[in-house]
Amino acid sequence: MCTKRDFGKTKNGDSVTAYTIRNKSGMSATIINFGATVVKLEVPDKDGKLRDVVLGYDDIESYEDGETFFGAVIGRNANRIFEGKVTLDGVTYQMDQNDNENNLHSGLNGVDKKCWTVLQDNDESSVTLICKSNDMEQGLPGNVTITVTYSISEANEFRISYDAVSDKKTVINLTNHSYFNLNGHYKGTIENHELQINADYYNPVIDSKSIPTEENAPVEGTVFDFSKPKTVGQDIEADDVQLKYVGGYDHNYVIKGNTGDMRDFASVYSPESGIFMEFMSDQTGTQFYSGNFIGDQIGKGGFNYHFRSGLCLEPQYIPNAMNFIEEGNIDSPVFDADERYHSVSIFKFSVK
C-alpha cells in the first residue's frame, strides 16, 4: 500500500491527502488529490543520492492560489484556445478568457483546481484518481469523467496514464504540468540542462499572446533546433522574434511519428547531478516551456523559485487544433459522445 499523509484542507474545507508511491530502488513520487498534482519526484543522482526534481509547494494554500500549475493535471483542454471559442456542430461555446483574450489550460474551473477521488491506493507503486468536469463547467458541453494513474516501475519509469469519456461531443486534451529541474527543485536555473527533442517542426506563435499558428515551421538551422542535444540556455537569448514574444521557449513541437504510437519525445540531462530523463508519449506533440513566467515565489522547503527555475515538457494535441483540424482526424482533440480518450506518458530516469 502506498504511504498517505494529511496535506491540509482547501478553502472550502475539503481534506487533501498526499500519496507517496515508490519502487524498491528508492525512487518515489508524491501526489495530492487536489488537481491530481505531482508535488515531489525523488530520483537517484550519479552518487546514488535522491534529488527531488520537480518544483512545488509545501502547503495546499499555495496550490490553490498558485498560477503556475506546478505538477497539476491540466484539463479538459491543455494549452491555449484562441479567444476562448470552440465551435462544435455549428454551435460556438465561450470559455474563460483568462490569458489575455484567450483561454489557457481550461480557465478558472480546470481540473487542476478540483479535489479528485482516489480510486486505488493499495499498491505501493501506483495510485489512481478520478474526477468529473461537469457539463458547461468550463464553457464546454458534456460531463467528462477523467481518470489518471501514476505508477513507478523498477526501471525507474514514472508513468502517467490518462483515460476520459464524455456524454456529449466535446474537447479532451489532457497533460501534466510538472516543472523539472534535474539538479534539484531548489537549484536555480535549468539553462545548463542539455535538451534533445525528436521533432523536425514546431508551431510558431502569432505574437506575445502565445496563440500558435497552423504552420509547421522547420527547426533546422534555427534556435528551435533541439534535434541534437544542446543546453537550454545556448540560444535562449538570441535575437529571434519568436523567443522575444514569450521570453524564451514556450512552443509546441510536432514529434516525429504517428499520434497513438508510443515513441521517444525528448531527453534532458543535467551534467551537475548526472540525472538523465527520457520522455516518451503517444501524443501529437509536446509544449516545451522554459519557465519564463515562474516569477519570484517561495517553493518547497522555503527555497526561492524564479525565472527559468524549471522546464516543462507537456504532451498534447497541437494547441488550438480544435479550431483548424478537421473533426474525425486522429490529431483532433474533439471527441464524440462515449468515444474514449486514452494517452500515456513515461519519464524514465537514469544516470550517466
List the helices and strands and how they pair.
Layout: E1 3-9, E2 15-22, E3 28-32, E4 37-44, E5 50-52, H1 60-65, E6 73-74, E7 80-81, E8 85-88, E9 91-94, E10 103-104, E11 117-123, E12 126-133, E13 144-152, E14 157-166, E15 170-171, E16 175-176, E17 194-197, E18 199-203, E19 217-218, E20 230-231, H2 241-246, E21 250-255, E22 263-269, E23 275-281, E24 285-289, E25 297-298, E26 304-305, E27 312-316, E28 334-335, E29 341-351
Antiparallel strand pairs: 1-2, 2-3, 3-4, 4-5, 6-16, 7-10, 8-9, 11-12, 12-13, 13-14, 14-29, 15-28, 17-20, 17-22, 18-19, 18-21, 21-24, 22-23, 23-29, 24-27, 25-26
How far from one another are the termini? 32 Å
Q: Approximately what portion of the residues adopt beta-strand conformation? A: 35-45%
> Low-confidence spans: pLDDT under 50, at least 5 residues?
none
Computed structural class: mainly beta
What's the average pLDDT?
96
Rg, nearest Å: 19 Å
Level of helix content? under 10%
Q: Overall 3D geometry?
A: globular
Discrete helix count: 2
Number of E strands:
29
Largest sheet, spatial ordering of strands: 11-12-13-14-29-23-22-17-20
What characterizes the major β-sheet? 9 strands, antiparallel
